[in-house]
Amino acid sequence: MKKSYFLVSALLLTAAASYGQGTELFLSEYDEGAHQSGVSYNGGVSNSTGSERAIEIFNPTVASVNLNAYSVRRYSNGSAAVTEEEKLQRRTGTNVLNPSAAFVFASGEATITAITSKADQLSAGHAPVTGPNVIFGGGMAYFNGDDAIALVRWTSGTAGVGTPVLIDIFGSIGFQPLPASGTGTGQWSGTNPADGTPAVYVASANQSLMRRDNISRGIRTNNPTNWNPATEWTVYSYAFPPGSTGNTEVGNQSYARLGEHNDYSGPNGLYLPLKTLEKFNSGISIYPNPASGSATVEIKDVKVGNIIVLNSLGQSITAQPRGMNEKITLDISALKPGLYFVQCLSADGQIKIYKELVVK
Prior knowledge:
The chain contains 2 helices and 24 strands. It is mainly beta. The protein has 2 domains: about 1-15 and about 270-360, Immunoglobulin-like (Sandwich), CATH 2.60.40; about 20-250, Immunoglobulin-like. The strands form 6 sheets. A 6-stranded mixed β-sheet has the order 10-9-4-3-16-17, with no helix packed on it. Strands 2-24-23-20-21 form a 5-stranded antiparallel β-sheet, with helices on one face. β23 and β24 form a beta hairpin. This is T9SS type A sorting domain-containing protein. It holds the Pfam family Por_Secre_tail. Keywords: Signal.
């Protein structure tokens, strides 16, 4: 059976999988310090490199999760392509993350004891470098407030092999926020009415951020360019507290919550087996890719409930396959050249993936 559907436009999405809440790892802390290079913040023990950075990953599930299937990425300065990517690999011990536990991935140049003492893994050096955990480019933990970050799960069970599935995103991939001056390093920022008054300013630079306690799953589609981190994140420490002037407070930025996410109040769900995800993902293909004029979505031996493409206005078209083996032709002649993703939802509603499509 063959059908044609016309796509008016598409919203740039990121390859992802969607499961029930509390069933997959997600980013739970983001720390971007403003410590000055060459200054000691450890009582003279060592001087800071100016790269006091860390991210934390939380396991909300009831299972011990093998980290061999996971990686973290950086998209530097508005890049739509990955600039650095590293596997998750503990420095010592078994490479698993226990239920309700957190994993800390820190900059390899971090010197602050509050970071280094909690780090389960230290990032490789600045790109370009190679190393046992580097998948592409080099170390990814040298991010600034204008870099997007993603947590990735690989369908093969080994990071760097098979199909990468983005399961959480911090920032907006493909967009670089700029400061008011229009040049230099910007940041995503905003407030949340839930924080009351005065408004609490949450930003992707110079702050220690935690995921809000009721968030139980990652962001699986790319955030808008005007992404507001305060929607899902809250600040617990500042390099530049409200009312402060100059650099007098940067050394007081705290990382005290790093290594735990004890405030989590969401559900603890069942972890989705990789075999289930791999079978569904491998049963759907889009070709030709790159494509011009039209593209075909081919379904083989999997039950797809619907195929949806959204645009930036929230409009959508929906195709509903009728069998486990089908070819659906998408008319993409009206789309501008670029990177697009087509959403495929399983018939039982348990799995959602976004397949990459490049339009010439």
